[in-house]
Amino acid sequence: MGEGRKINNKGKNDGYMCSASAALNSAEAKEVLDANISVSYGNPGGKTLVSRQVANAVGKTPEETCQRAFLNTVKRFQSTAAREGKRSVRVTSYFDKQTVGGNQYECHIGTWNSRVVLKGSIH
After folding, report:
1. In whole angstroms, what is the distance from residue 101 CA to residue 93 CA?
2. By CB distance 3.0 to 4.6 Å, which of 13, 14, 53, 119 could disulfide with 72?
3. b/e 21-33 (16+ beta carbons within 10 angstroms → b)
4. For residue range 43-72, what is the model confidence (pLDDT) as tens digits?
5. Cα distances (angstroms) measured from residue 38 to each of 2, 86, 88
6. Is-above-0.85 flag for pTM?
7. Any residues with CB less than 8 A from the CB of 85 and at least 6 apart, and which?
8. Are the beta carbons of 55 and 68 closer than 8 angstroms?
């Protein structure tokens, strides 16, 4: 999961680095993601889109809420791919317009919700 860190001094805004493969291989991912549209994590290449999604953080652990926000964002990319007749998506973390290498994505947890920003391409 990663250790939270204070981003600024304006209310709660803790940043976490999380495992994309753990989220994509979770039981929750099997329930909410479209099995007909494959998902891979890493450099999306080509023409990219950006999506920012949130998840309710109240009463959830950082791992639970960050995973939900990540999967919400991936699901958004899958919906776009399905609309355009595509069969796969490739995403990477893009918080504050900064990509994160490896298998990690950045998640920020505020008082009420968590936020994940992904950049991705559909194929």
Report:
1. 8
2. 53
3. eebbebeebeeeb
4. 998 899 999 999 999 999 999 999 999 999
5. 26, 10, 5
6. yes
7. none
8. yes
